[in-house]
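Before the break, one more example. Copy the sequence into your notebook; we will annotate it together after we see the structure.
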Amino acid sequence: MPNETTPPRHALVTGGGQGIGAAIAQALVQQGNVVTLLGRRLEVVQALALQHPEHMHAVAADVGDAEQVAQAFEAGRQRFGPVHMLVNNAGQAASAPFMKTDLALWNQMLAVNLTGTMICTQAALPDMLAAGWGRVVNVASTAGQTGYAYVSAYCAAKHGVIGLTRSLALELAKKGITVNAVCPGYTETDIVTTSIARIVAKTGRSEAEARAEFVKSNPQGRLVQPDEVANAVAWLCGPLASAVTGQAISVAGGEVM
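Here is what the structure looks like once it is written out:
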């Protein structure tokens, strides 16, 4: 149900066309907000925006490209006005043993997961500072709270996102702006589905056996659902979370405590 106690606000969600990002965008619209969806492929974010033409707008940009991001934010402002809430959801994961992680892979993981978060946050903050109110939610990962083998570059980037979250939360604490991170465990998305299919193809295991590899770290014995992550983000963006800042909130069935 839309929140009738606060006026509609403009949220920008990166990686907003599918999976967790799409669930977040829809949760924010249900709260009564308007949302700019930012993604690398315009056709993907447009497909979702067309389902909510009065409340969503689609723009294309690579979050690691500051010029593209600036243009995308300006297009969002032209449609819905100043940005009040930013959800840095765009991300990418790649696995490789550390000694086979070349500089190209390392830089790619940092560019999408960490540098992109920095670029988009710098693009959004002037509007929030001018308004004296804002919400920044970074979708990190349990990989930002603990270590996993064979994803050292991804873990390093997500740990960096949490460090940035904490530092910026203190910097903005008296500006009416909160900065938090949400850290999902393995979530029911196309990425995980593709990974399960890859394991089946490479190892000959059944789909159930491959799926078990992803749920065994979750004490609840299941994958997290995108809506569960979205609900946490929507709460952090709302008025009842005004005293919550600098936090890294796990949405992982108790995997990280």
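DSSP finds eight helices and seven strands in the chain. Residues 188-223 form one domain. Try to locate both features in your own notes.
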